[in-house]
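__Record contents__

***
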Amino acid sequence: MRIVPFLAPLFFLAACHVSMPQGQVPPPPDDPVQISAAAQRLRSSVKHLSEKIGPRNRYNPGSLTATEEYIHQAFMDMGYDPSNLHFSFAEPGADPDLRPSDAVNFLVELKGSSLPGEIVIVGAHYDTVYLSPGADDNASGLALLLELAKSLRSLEPNRTLRFVAFANEEQPYFMTMAMGSMVYAKSCRDKGENITAMLALDGLGYYTGEQGSQSFMHTPLSLFYPGKGNFAAFLGDLDSRELLFQAVRLFREGTAFPAEGLATVSWFPRLGNSDHGSFWAHGYPGIMVTDTLALRNPHYHEKSDAWQTLDFEALARVAKGLENVIKGLAGTNAGRKPAISAAAGTR
């Protein structure tokens, strides 16, 4: 791998493009039957969340309740005993004397065998912006989280593996202390937990082979990355670059689906715009796995963010690659490079 430094004049910063070689271990061929079955499950989940339930936010409390019941029951049906992590918070700008609002994060865990104190977290938020059905943002991420939790249910990891569905990622809670992932990351830090890796799944269903479909905010990134929006993107700050390198390598060893990685300064535009940013704020390494959302998907945060716009076969192939990433990070892939050291969990 190599790191190519350049100056992005619009932002007056030095960024690092991570040019990742293809995995040294050739990926196994996709099983069309397995991919088709996974695509059907993912489509069913996204369709249920975005069409049957619809917009999932504080303006639609009934839909939020239906989503919470859906997540809890999905984990139960897999054989997990989910922890419903309720928390209270003051609404932004509200009278402090008013009764706090309530929300809930959902967590399931596979306890590590030899390294239980080292924790790998895979998370996705389940809320949407006002009026958007949120098929890509973020029913696709939540559906993928549930698919991974299901496919890895029988895994016996060395490190403790947690799947977490987060509340309150969208406005007006974004990057406030009312954000579900911020509440959870703070609780992990307060307990002194050693999180060695956090993967935020956010917007993962939109792919197109049309040239020019991938935007780079008019930055020099276009010199290093494909112009077609047909790849999964792994994004992280410089403190999380080792995790990012390893995740992209493991993904490419698990699937031939295209993947690109970028590690740069944490304040690069949009880089921290998801739940992984909450973990950065508390000193943990984290990366976002995404289709790049607003930089590719014209339906981002719109009423048109419908399940019919997504590519579920591509999403199933992303799931296959992420299975290998999680197995590698959790310490279950014999003969592979071990996950990042425990010391990397603290900045």
Observations:
- Residues 32-53 form the longest helix (22 residues).
- Helices lie at 32-53, 61-77, 135-151, 180-190, 241-254, 276-281, 312-330.
- Strands lie at 2-8, 13-19, 83-89, 101-110, 115-125, 159-166, 194-201, 232-237, 259-264, 287-290.
